[in-house]
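Could someone model thymidine-5'-phosphate with this protein?
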Amino acid sequence: MSPAESRTAESSPAGSTSGSPPGRAPAAAFVTFEGVDGAGKSTQLARLAEALREAGREVVVTREPGGSPGAEEIRRLLVEGEAHRWSPETEILLFTAARRDHVERVIQPALRRGAVVLCDRFADSTRAYQGAGDAARRALVDRLHETIIGIEPGLTLILDLDPADGLARASERAGAEDRFERKGAGFQQALRREFHRLAEANPGRCVLIDATGDPDTVAARILAVAEARGLL
Ligand code: TMP
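Reply:
Sure, complex below.
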């Protein structure tokens, strides 16, 4: 368990100008979706949002990198262009900068209002994409997260499927945002292993969802978890 996850819930002002992290974890209604590229996160996130709204909850749907105007600008620097355009360390700093803005301006205010926040990717993506296979980099990700972000989701749904199937789906709709998909099949296999490790290391927060099958079947698996966690 990371230090951030061992903290108890407390709050600090949204948009705080101090250097401290903008929030403390875990937040029960902060739900993140993770997985390899093309795992079906966006479709499933929209399905859960619909179910929660039908149940009368206020739902904020957001994504990373991005989710706030400033973070969306940083997103373009990260997901477009040549695969090795940034060093891994620069990339970690850019993802963390985008996340800080997103947490301050969108996530924390929504959680304080009592909304459910559904976020397409969060810090586990940085742990996996930027940290997999390199202990020093992974430690840097964790240190920055602890210092600058300081919030963990209450529930992380990791959509799990063979990256070969995911890449086929992702390449159908990638457009210009394919910087990470172009890192290839071996990279995606390493990502999947890293997401499995994250699930094992954080059993209270992370749930592996079998993402094979049609969208209705996968949505039913997710609804069962949401119900068990008291979200619905
Ligand atoms: P998306 O395709 O799910 O919108 O995500 C954009 C890409 O950014 C995806 O290939 C994963 C990558 N990514 C990271 O490498 N690190 C991160 O921290 C996040 C949030 C995304």
